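To fix ideas, we now present one chain and its tokenised fold:
***
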Amino acid sequence: MTNYIYKCRGIDPAAQTTNPTHFKLLITQKTFIFVLEEASFLFKILFFNSLQLNNTLNQIKFLSSSKKLELF
């Protein structure tokens, strides 16, 4: 009797993956996780590129300041 009630609700305890809403939920979870991973990857790239750019600018400032000191 309980299996019949579950099947009427669209939930089959023997095979829950046949429920279309279950598939939709899995797809949205996987999509959400994929988007989060891609966003974190892009953030890491941008963050490390900005650090490297900052380091390069500091080196340029240091070189330009050392050349000024040599001139005097």
DSSP finds two helices and no strands in the chain. The chain has a mean pLDDT of 71. Residues 41-72 form one domain.
